[in-house]
Amino acid sequence: MTPCRLSIWLALWLALLLPALAAAQPRANYFNDPFERLSAGIAACPLPAGPLITEAQMRAQAHGRAERGTSCYQAGRCRLPNSYLYDKEIMARVVRAVAADGRFADSSVWATGQRRWIVLQGCVRSREQARALVELLGGVDEVEQVIDELQVRAR
Question: How many folded domains does the chain comprise?
Answer without folding.
Answer: 1
